[in-house]
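debug: dumping io for the single-chain case to check the tokenizer round-trip. Nothing else runs in this session.
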Amino acid sequence: MAGHAPTDGSSPRPMELHRTKPRLTAYQRRMHAVTALHHRRHLVQLAVATLIVVMAIRHHSESGTGAPSVDALCPFGAVETLWTWVTTGAFISKIHPSNLVMGLALLLSVLVAGNAFCGWVCPFGAVQDALTWVRRRLHLPTVTVPARLDRWLRFGRYAVLTLVLVMSATTLRLWFADVDPYVNLFGLGWLFEPDLATMWPGLLILALVLAFSLVVERAWCRYLCPLGGVLSVLGHLSILRVRRSTTACTGCNLCVQPCPVGIDVAAPVAAVSADCIGCLECVANCPTGGALEVSAAPPWAAWRKRLDLEVVGSSAGAGARHHGSTSSEGGDAR
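debug: decoded output
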């Protein structure tokens, strides 16, 4: 009878041992991939942000040792310095060698992996991701920027970049550091050396950017970050890109919604926009194997495929117009 010990002398074995582990559904596998990605990415972001905070504390508490400030750990200082040297022949005062080292390292990383720095390393990007988490937990409203307005607002990064480069070359100093939200937040000057009379413009800009980023995901990255503008241009030269297979894609659009910078990942193009910050949310959320993947290819391969798609699209449009005109003539004849 069931439940009795076996008569052959062998030890009883629980029924659980005979049960096979249930197979995960496609949805469960996708959710596991998304969760694992979140853990890895946020762990890297937390580690970098912690390092920046520690360096800021050292700068204020060990000023006699010459510990660098957090703006010396930002690669954008290399952009300002290089531009100033090219246009004026002079270097920005108080530039730290680490700026140039980090600038070179970032350039190499962009040529290999695009804007992954923004999605995995940048501490201010991590703050914006945290604000998105807070908004969702508190069920606060989300502002969706219309697609046409979004395209225009993205040019704001280049406007800010132009202003910063002109002012840096004119003043021969890291002019942007005074109003840079990253420096004003992670520099900890508001904690160790509070001086509202001189710090209020930077703190006001910081507050506005944080408020904006609370209702529009990664608003600073999308519309105002000057370094983001530089990386968006250089991203066209990267070898590793998120690429979409038009044959494997089912058009479910599940890859579009999780993109933190509002890219239309499902657009029929050879490679995802150079505004991509490499967070890989779209890849993890894609339910179809091979539809979205990170692959290596020379930059000109994407350009050539884009031209091919444009040619095919224009040919299809011309064919449709010709068919329409033929049908119209046939109708008139009848």
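debug: round-trip ok. The two ends are 86 Å apart (CA to CA).
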